[in-house]
Amino acid sequence: MNIAMLGSGFIARFYATTLHAQRRKDRILSVYSRNTSHAKKFAADFGLNKYGSEMEKIIQDPEVDAVIVALPNHLHEEAVLACVAAQKAVLCTKPLGRNASEAKRMLEAVEKAGIFAGYLEDLCYTSKFLKSLASIKAGNLGKILWTKSREAHPGPHSDWFWDKEQSGGGAIIDLGCHCVEISRNFIGKSIRPVEVMCWAATQVHPIDAEDHAIGLVKYENGAIGQFEVSWTFRGGMDLRDEVMGTEGTVWLNSFLRTGFEMFTTGKGENYIAEKAESDSGWLFPVGDESHELGYPQMFSDMFDAMEQGIEPQETFYDGYVVNAILDAAFLSAKSKKWEKVILEDWRGDSGIREEKSQVSYDEKYYLIKKEILPNGAEKVILKDKVTGEIKQKTIRD
Amino acid sequence: MNIAMLGSGFIARFYATTLHAQRRKDRILSVYSRNTSHAKKFAADFGLNKYGSEMEKIIQDPEVDAVIVALPNHLHEEAVLACVAAQKAVLCTKPLGRNASEAKRMLEAVEKAGIFAGYLEDLCYTSKFLKSLASIKAGNLGKILWTKSREAHPGPHSDWFWDKEQSGGGAIIDLGCHCVEISRNFIGKSIRPVEVMCWAATQVHPIDAEDHAIGLVKYENGAIGQFEVSWTFRGGMDLRDEVMGTEGTVWLNSFLRTGFEMFTTGKGENYIAEKAESDSGWLFPVGDESHELGYPQMFSDMFDAMEQGIEPQETFYDGYVVNAILDAAFLSAKSKKWEKVILEDWRGDSGIREEKSQVSYDEKYYLIKKEILPNGAEKVILKDKVTGEIKQKTIRD
Amino acid sequence: MNIAMLGSGFIARFYATTLHAQRRKDRILSVYSRNTSHAKKFAADFGLNKYGSEMEKIIQDPEVDAVIVALPNHLHEEAVLACVAAQKAVLCTKPLGRNASEAKRMLEAVEKAGIFAGYLEDLCYTSKFLKSLASIKAGNLGKILWTKSREAHPGPHSDWFWDKEQSGGGAIIDLGCHCVEISRNFIGKSIRPVEVMCWAATQVHPIDAEDHAIGLVKYENGAIGQFEVSWTFRGGMDLRDEVMGTEGTVWLNSFLRTGFEMFTTGKGENYIAEKAESDSGWLFPVGDESHELGYPQMFSDMFDAMEQGIEPQETFYDGYVVNAILDAAFLSAKSKKWEKVILEDWRGDSGIREEKSQVSYDEKYYLIKKEILPNGAEKVILKDKVTGEIKQKTIRD
Amino acid sequence: MNIAMLGSGFIARFYATTLHAQRRKDRILSVYSRNTSHAKKFAADFGLNKYGSEMEKIIQDPEVDAVIVALPNHLHEEAVLACVAAQKAVLCTKPLGRNASEAKRMLEAVEKAGIFAGYLEDLCYTSKFLKSLASIKAGNLGKILWTKSREAHPGPHSDWFWDKEQSGGGAIIDLGCHCVEISRNFIGKSIRPVEVMCWAATQVHPIDAEDHAIGLVKYENGAIGQFEVSWTFRGGMDLRDEVMGTEGTVWLNSFLRTGFEMFTTGKGENYIAEKAESDSGWLFPVGDESHELGYPQMFSDMFDAMEQGIEPQETFYDGYVVNAILDAAFLSAKSKKWEKVILEDWRGDSGIREEKSQVSYDEKYYLIKKEILPNGAEKVILKDKVTGEIKQKTIRD
């Protein structure tokens, strides 16, 4: 696969490093940057022959099989439309748009053009995520009741991220897009997100965008997908997910506690752990940052899907749904009440009701709880089916 | 200290076990239960000479120095008023009332009577909590921005807990009272809780009360105290707190991951870990459950305060504030919007504004972020004080 | 209980702090130090009326019920003999002696005098230890095969510890005494320790004693008790135990990972975590150091046993066995081979053989292993009872 | 790269799965098995056109660029010599030989033939290992004093492993080879391993080989590399490494605690965690087992080295040194004393002495320790350079 990279910043470099590692067969062919010298530097660093500041030219190159959009958020649409014009497969970094309208236009354009389009939502491709998702789909957690996805760190690397106009928001758009899609996968992509409640504030930085937010996304089956995002966290990069189901629990920690712990007085010469806030004391590096964040697995899925002519796991439609949820979150943060998720184009299930299990204990009672006490006795807590009265009964002393 | 215990159930036994352990000088003298045979059994188990089903008689006993109210929620007020009538020091289990009105009446009664009154909020007395609170008060975390307190397990032991009328609610009143007071301590008890947003649902059990809820409590200084409570959790008892401040982070785990891990095929003969859901496989017991939950430290503070004629760390006023916050949470769960916390009797600070730090980089710019890149280069992200434009600047290559 | 404290240093203060906390009924009455001004300072700090530098006088005081020996190792024997002379109950800090001869003389003296004598081995009283020991005794781990106890930190607080003559050795005598007794409890105190292999070296400090050692203690039933001790560890105080049995595993972490994690930029004003090597970055305090190290539980057992006229869990005999094992360790570190543990006075079981389980699969084969493969198939690995040939057999596809 | 796979069992399948994943450009071309039907099945599963039971034929195929030896230990030498005869690059699984003589013959054969030869020591390629090794080489831990590498699980999957003749031993040869090479890397490959002390026993299984062993490898610079290996562990696969240096500490956990925790009541339908001993309760899967164990990184290094004409990180010479150390371990387990490591062919440094740091405090004293007390005071512990006397001195109150 020959790839054109649009963008030469932090994320473009991360993508390129991933693609050129571990003897993968896909190669980056060319790079575009608005700034020619940045493009040239990037090309030199990754051994590319082609670079430039004319986006269309880079995209239209007949040798290019696929284009990766690794540009600031406000430039995604333009880049995607250029790929549509050139009929080139396109992979777009997250978030897809700054809002659902932008995302919907991109979605419709690629679908109309019939080109392959993938949504580069890396955190839905980490090995921990993929294995726990498979386990959840196999029923090991029963019905999913609640999920929590958290991403918090001391703030992004590039200036444009901090500017609401260019990025579309603050921590919600930057980090919330990950969290929302993680929860959506665990709860089930076919379950409709119905409404959102969100708190957001600018607690620390001299910016207009929010640097801290908490949101609850309610799904049609009663499940809640919670997101916690912050640019005010101290201590490194906090990436954790939790899932509660009727039959089990999943806890994932993708960064600060992964089985790699290190103490150093700091006498060594350099850089130890990414996004760590110090280089001495107890540090918690990850082994292979790009693998831990899901990049290699994501690109494998994308290119395998392209070759097989099927959809990747994360599509532009997913990106659109995420944007629609975040739109509701922004609204809610202002209106201070739950806001509906507006999805003009909904492709999942409809009309699912919140069902509660009513387990009968016998003809007269529902079972609320059965428990074994420390002394070995067993008791049940029951509810009268008619009167609603609640009582306990020892069934073994 | 001679103590009369009102109640003979799960929590009364926990309190008694704590008080009679570790060579403490305070002793339980007598026990009251609505059911004489329960009182008799309790007295036998703990070596007490006095027991009975007449509450006033037990309380008025001249040998009694202090009364512990360990009764179901709907009986707290009656018991507290009986202590007031008898002019006896009273320690009441959590929550103080089923709602703020009830709590306020108890508060006013004990204050008018001039008797010692303590609020038995054990989780604000765990050793981890006390040490982290001291550290936070010493400034190690800077300004507190957000706290999260979580308590989740598969549901309470006694029937009355599951009945909304007797308990005053479900997981919110049972577990939320802990979480709210933990966060209030970290944020600062003098900071006024202003409004609450809460989601609550009955997801699993055949009951009217909520078995799962998430709430955000907003404080006057802009800090958020989040609570997560559930009776639907699978895997044991999940007790975790988190604090984010401008200068640091605290993560506490009080139950499932405390440095005690055990695997067993299950061939041993008995009971291993409390509230564990199985007795084989990987188990995570705590060493000393009562210590881990703060009971001994709580009673020490209560009786030391009584002897010294000062207030304990947790008072009836605290119990009242907690109830007022939970009242707003219940309202919000129904109205689906933020609800004001109604505190007719507020004794803390007023008029605190949410302040944002605007750190000047130089005359022209505010500093948004300073960072050291992997290659050792240093860059700053700045905001123009006049135009608001955001830009980055490399200050060392 | 009225207690005379011999010693006014680090450990004496730790003991006193523990005893005077949590409304315990036992009180320290007096303190002895070789240095009167130290005794006076200690008395002032803990509110004692009596202090002095004449040891016999402090011990012989008729008001004294029990004496705690919290002196440097080379002064234990003299202090214990003075208690014997005064017929006072004596509790001696660890290690009992600098070697087995010294310990044996103390043991014989207290037994001949018929006084109560307790061995203050606090780490055999932590809540985690006590609960896991109970679980192991209940059979949850099957037969114990191997234990490992590890204590490592950057070195002791007082000068005399670093002097081989006064302390009896280095890290082995200081820390190994804990580790050996922990393993002995897990394996079973009635099982005879047979021989020891030990490596020891002075890797870092300009001292004669070892600052790092690893030892293996072999017990008569084939179990191994491993100790790892060091004064060269960087990162705080590492206190971990592991147990492997035929039916299970126990992992205990008593200090650096107990569910209390904290990050701070260091802007607060003071002291956060004991034995931490820094006051910024990620720190791992424990909630209540004295509880986590077993002090309150240890003194409760000692005084309860005294009152009940029974033996405490840790006796002078235990202290003597520990010294005998450490003597063999010192010998082995020099001879570079396994050395016998010389126990002239052995009170446990004798003649236990190392037994191996030979589980029959059927008449022809022993079962080596049964396993379920990822695809659900089941296979067994068998050994021919006659020929000894090993083969595998699929028993379910 | 076209690869011939010799072997079709557990490890061959693991290698093949790794190589054909993540869009890698290297492909397996053919497979050899002693049993044609096994070879045929393997070929079908991995989409290979060529398979067979004639090893030479498979190796000599002109299309083959490299041969992977994934056969039982007693067949390594024969397979390597066949590659030598065919002048084909060879990658041999661990351990290289059953003993140092066998390994040395293989080493000499490939060197004489001038073919590329790599030692497939995967655990020296995990991402955590590689990053911590880089950090250690950069000096962040100072001088390495001690390392511990531990591998323990309930025993291997295939019958031949349990047969001493075919495998060369038990847990020592199976797991110890990993541990020894991990420690050797951390301590420095150029430092000569001098002698070994080892305990080994058959504690549980009806076999002749050891199922549990602990060993200490002493290096010329005084560092100790400890290994702990067992086939008797209950609870899954325990893979942990620790490193202590004068300036820091590293703790790695590669399997049971990697940030993936799951509880399930077991109602789901299938296989959750590899080598877990149950499918309900708390489980600790790893995200991507092959990545966590270092396979992809290992093959990348091997093929990159082949293409660049350089040595891979792990060579046949390394395999030979490991075997020589394990030979000494087996000897020591029998002789019960330290045994010399016999290395007829030593290519590292020689004559390194154990050096101790003697830090001067001033003209008169060496510094033993400097510490800050809880009250902020600072003290030093010193040793007189002439008399050797140790004393403490408060340098700030």
TrEMBL record, chains A, B, C, D:
Gene3D superfamilies attached to this UniProt entry: Dihydrodipicolinate Reductase, domain 2 (3.30.360.10), NAD(P)-binding Rossmann-like Domain (3.40.50.720)
Superkingdom per UniProt: Bacteria
SUPFAM superfamilies named in the record: Glyceraldehyde-3-phosphate dehydrogenase-like, C-terminal domain, NAD(P)-binding Rossmann-fold domains
Domain GFO/IDH/MocA-like oxidoreductase: 135-250
InterPro entries in UniProt: Gfo/Idh/MocA-like_OxRdtase_N, GFO_IDH_MocA-like_dom, NAD(P)-bd_dom_sf
Domain Gfo/Idh/MocA-like oxidoreductase N-terminal: 1-114
Keywords carried by this UniProt record: Oxidoreductase
Oxidoreductase found in the keyword field: yes
Family: Belongs to the Gfo/Idh/MocA family.
Name by which UniProt lists this protein: Gfo/Idh/MocA family oxidoreductase
Organism: Cyclobacterium jeungdonense
